[in-house]
Design goal:
Blueprint: H1 2-19, E1 34-38, E2 41-44, H2 45-55, H3 64-88, H4 95-123, H5 129-142, H6 149-179, H7 186-191
Antiparallel strand pairs: 1-2
Helix pairs in contact: 1-2, 2-3, 4-6, 5-6
Length: 196
């Protein structure tokens, strides 16, 4: 488990390095300025800024800005050195590595799609006070409540919205599945052994 967490942390740095050139110039220096050279790799200020935006997304900088930048820079340098060592060992050409990258890429695409569709569905949902009251009354009959309607209403409304979004999302997925061209070869599936 620890290896997987470390792997994904390294992948996060790789993604930020690759995506670094796509952001706007938000720092005081040019995104293209070399901040550090690590063997034959040049870390650009924009890449560093993008990584800082991810790591310090809550705007809390432990030990102040100067200390936080020093710690982050050292972390990036160490990760880059480890990545270079992994490349020397040809891990980046390993089939298992490529499969992990593919899985990570797929998970990221799915996460982005789900987030986008959930936001779209949420914008189109309305929940009336009467709906919230009816749900509160239904829940009160099923279990003893020690909370007033006004205290429970925001959470109940959120729950109703979440359920409606899930229903809309499920319907959308059914539509996608129904319109997709899918052929299943049962004889091949039968011969695949998944238990050892």
């Amino acid at each position: 488990m620890r290896k997987r967490v470390c792997f994904f942390a390294v992948i996060g740095v790789i993604v930020s390095f690759v995506a670094g050139g796509c952001g706007s110039d938000r720092g005081r220096v040019s995104n293209g300025q070399v901040l550090a050279k690590i063997n034959n790799y040049e870390l650009k200020s924009g890449d560093f800024k993008d990584e800082a935006d991810i790591v310090f997304s809550n705007k809390y900088l432990p030990g102040g800005e100067t200390k936080a930048k020093d710690v982050l820079l050292e972390d990036i340098i160490m990760k880059k050195i480890l990545l270079q060592e992994a490349q020397k060992e040809d891990f980046d050409k390993n089939a298992a590595f490529m499969k992990e990258i593919e899985r990570y890429w797929e998970q990221t695409l799915l996460k982005l799609l789900v987030k986008k569709k959930t936001a779209e569905f949420s914008r189109n949902i309305t929940v009336s006070d009467a709906d919230v009251r009816a749900e509160y009354d239904r829940m009160s009959k099923e279990q003893a409540f020690n909370i007033s309607f006004s205290e429970a209403a925001p959470e109940i409304k959120k729950d109703i919205i979440d359920r409606k979004v899930q229903t809309d999302f499920d319907e959308w997925m059914k539509g996608l599945r129904g319109s997709a061209s899918v052929e299943i070869y049962k004889d091949v599936l039968k011969n695949v052994k998944i238990f050892k």
